[in-house]
Amino acid sequence: MQPFASLNASKANFDDIYLQDDPRGYFSVLGALDYIIPDVAAPIIRQILAARKCRYDTAATVLDIGCSYGINAAVLRYPLSFRRLRRRYANADMAALSADDLARLDRHYYAGWPETGIARFIGLDVSAPAVRYAVSVGLLEAGIVANLESCAPAPRDIERIRRADLILSTGCVGYVTERTFRAVLGAMDRAPWVVSFVLRMFPYDAIAEECAKHGLVTERLAGATFVQRRFRDIEEFTRCLGTLEKLGIETAGLESEGRFQAELFVSRPLEDVQAAPLGQIVKVVSGRNRTVGTRYVRVGRGERTQVLRAPS
Ligand SMILES: C[S@@+](CC[C@H](N)C(=O)[O-])C[C@H]1O[C@@H](n2cnc3c(N)ncnc32)[C@H](O)[C@@H]1O
User: Fold this and answer.
1) Which of 52, 195, 232, 250 could pair with 12 in a Cys bridge, judged by C-beta atoms 3.0 to 4.6 Å apart?
2) Measured on CA atoms in the order 240, 242, 245, 247, is the torsion positive or negative?
3) What angle do CA 52, 262, 287 make, to 5 degrees?
């Protein structure tokens, strides 16, 4: 099998934007390429978190691998989206702020939204500034700065990883391999659920094997792919299509139309899979974000249920 590093070389390199003190560069560069995986993954992750809560009766603590500036935590903990956050950071007055001032405002910004209560978040990323920002604005309860591809987790990091019961990753497999998953799974006391959105160019077999060593069965959601972003330019497009074709992956109607496509893999203990296979707990709704007029929505539960008009 081709190593991930050589597959990753087909993709454009964005290392600089992961290493800044705040997420403005991240939203500006990836936003301009319609990076949308956190938004398309969020409704699916919510369903998985709800299914896990139903089974275990507690809200999960999520370990977000490759958490970057805590964007998954933002869109899952609050009624926010990548697109909305991108607009916030694109504002000219925001561009003039220092990173410290921006973090101070962001702390208030996030605290000003009602929490979904769906999960608690800790994050792991190789970028110290990104993790520092995500913790300082309150998106992550704790952050781990480490490259588990090349180093074992420090004792302090193991203590943090141990608290998690669901491992999440979006846009990160490829940068990380089975080595990171081996280290994380090895640090955990109990079998977690593992939820990964993975570009089709990165084979998931070796990560699924690591999961199997911990008693987890991996399912791939059949019949659905998730757009990650547009290809940056013709060079990235032709390189990636070539890589996919060499792997024997049919790109027609998917990447051939100019967008990276990810698949969903979920690993769980056998008894959880038997109780409710993945296809039963996840419904993919197409067109969710394509309607623009007023909608009627039902919010709350039981006696507190209300019908509201959601503004466009
Ligand atoms: C495309 S970003 C995805 C960020 C976030 N998950 C999202 O979807 O918005 C990839 C992230 O992986 C991180 N990364 C790269 N190599 C890593 C490694 N060895 N261990 C942990 N994180 C890594 C980068 O710093 C970056 O934050």
Assistant:
1) 232
2) negative
3) 80
Domains by residue range for the chain, with CATH:
4-278 (3.40.50.150)
Burial of 218 (0-12, 13-18, 19+ CB in 10 A): buried
Mean pLDDT along residues 196-220: 98
Length of the chain: 312
Contacts (Cβ under 8 Å, ≥6 apart) of 131: 67, 123, 124, 125, 140, 143, 144, 145
Res 175 pLDDT > 90: yes
User: Average pLDDT for residues 75-95, to the nearest whole number?
Assistant: 95
pLDDT in tens, 256-301: 999 999 999 999 999 999 999 999 999 999 887 778 788 999 988 8
β-sheet bridge partners, residue 296: 309
Residue 175 Cα to ligand 1 middle (Å): 7
197, two tokens: 């959105």
Residue 70 backbone zone (phi > 0: left; psi -120 to 50: alpha; other: beta): left
- Report helix, strand or coil for 284: coil
If you take atom 14 of ligand 1, which residue's CA is the nearest one? Answer: 66
- For residue 137 the two structure tokens come to 């604005």
The predicted model scores a pTM of: 0.95
Nearest protein Cα to ligand 1, atom 27: 68
Instruction: Please compute the mean of the pLDDT values over residues 7-35 and round it to a whole number.
Output: 92
The token duo for 102 is 């921006």
Which of ligand 1's atoms lies nearest the C-alpha of 127? Answer: 25
Q: Whose CA is nearest to atom 4 of ligand 1?
A: 68
Cα dihedral sign for 24, 28, 29, 31? positive
122 neighbors 160 (Cβ within 8 angstroms): yes
Predicted confidence at residue 302, as pLDDT, reads 84
